[in-house]
Amino acid sequence: MFKKNKVLKIIALILLVVIIGLGVVYKIMRNPMLYFNPAAVPSITASPMNISDIYEISYFRSNLGHDYSMNAWDGETCRSMKHYLNFNMNSEPNTNIPVRSKPTPNHPNIKIYAPFDGTIIDDEPEQMPIGHQIHISSAQNSHYFVRLFHIDLLPSLKVGDEVKSGQWIGTVGPMDGIDVSYEANLINGKTVYLSIFQYMTKEAFAPFAAKGYKPSDFILTKEQADAKGYECNGQYFSNAPQQDPGAPVQEGAVMLRPNPYAAIFDQQHSQ
Fold first, then answer.
1. How big is the CA angle at 171 (ends 82 and 141), to the nearest 5 degrees?
2. Is the dihedral of CA 118, 123, 124, 125 positive or negative?
3. pLDDT tens by residue, 34-93
4. Which residues 6+ apart lie within 8 Å of 106 measured at CB?
5. Stretch (H or E) spanning 172
6. What angle do CA 93, 97, 102 make, to 5 degrees?
7. How many helices (H) and strands (E) does the chain have?
8. Which of 88, 113, 148, 200 is deepest in the core (most CB within 10 A)?
9. Chain centroid to CA 105: how far?
């Protein structure tokens, strides 16, 4: 009997460790799900930035910025599976370290909006010292969440708060940009990466459609990205295109309009 009780205690201890371990994984992996069902992906019902404030959008699967394909569920590697809406251009001339641009009467801060009804589930300082990374899970399906990189959350909002689609939630400076990633985690440790434009409602996409764009205009297929032959060194692209802020077309991105801050950028970096 004593030996049996000892075995039961050991089994109970093992189960407790497993349960705690699964709880840690569950927390780290942001509400993981068993499998990816495209039909269950919540719609993006609001653009995170007004189209009038966007001059450039990187392709989903571009080689701009840095590699963002960690543990992709379908095995894709060496590509940025998120969108950059404008590229942050305000930096210290001598160090090139990004800094928050300052608003002026003619150039106010850019407002950032919630992409759907949901809950703020995380607010993390960025490694690059500009803004925070705000995570919003969908009220329609909490497995799915949007990461908004490098934004300043409004002081009235915090983790745990519910937000409505299109609600003003934060700002960036007038010369700044954001990264937008749409994700879900699987129980096996893999991550599903999605384009916000692929799941944007017609109403949310209407300002882009009015300018003649289709959702697919902002997305490279896996085959198209493979054919471009991206090369990565760690998280960085070895063959990333050189960004010329004054160029009318940028490789790896869709230019909605000329960069309004190209001249300021050139002036900063010519000193």
1. 50
2. positive
3. 999 999 999 999 999 999 999 999 999 999 999 999 999 999 999 999 999 998 767 776
4. none
5. strand 168-172
6. 75
7. 4, 13
8. 148
9. 29
Please give the helix or strand (H or E) that residue 232 lies within, else none. strand 232-233
Output the CA–CA distances (angstroms, integers) from residue 227 to 62, 105, 112, 177, 252, in the order listed: 12, 46, 34, 28, 13
What are the tokens at 185? 């985690």
Rg over alpha carbons for the chain, rounded to the nearest Å, is 21
pTM equals 0.86
Residue that the structure tokens 């949007």 belong to? 146
- Which residue from 172, 191, 170 is spatially nearest to 182, judged by alpha carbons? 191
Q: How far is CA 252 from CA 16, 164, 216, in A?
A: 49, 32, 14
Cβ atoms of 32 and 186 closer than 8 Å: yes
| Other C-beta atoms lying within 10 Å of the C-beta of residue 13 | 10
Distance CA 39, CA 46 (A): 19
The token pair at 113 is 């909006």
Give the tokens for residue 247: 């160029």
- Please, what sign has the CA dihedral across residues 74, 34, 28, 43? positive
Give the residue from 150, 144, 114 showing the smallest Cα distance to 132. 150
Distance of CA 31 to the CA centre of its chain: 17
Any bridge partners for residue 232, and if so which?
237
Given a contact cutoff of 8 angstroms between Cβ atoms, the answer to whether 218 and 83 are in contact is yes
Residue 97 pLDDT level (bands cut at 50, 70, 90): confident
Torsion (CA) 229, 235, 237, 243 in degrees, nearest 10: 140
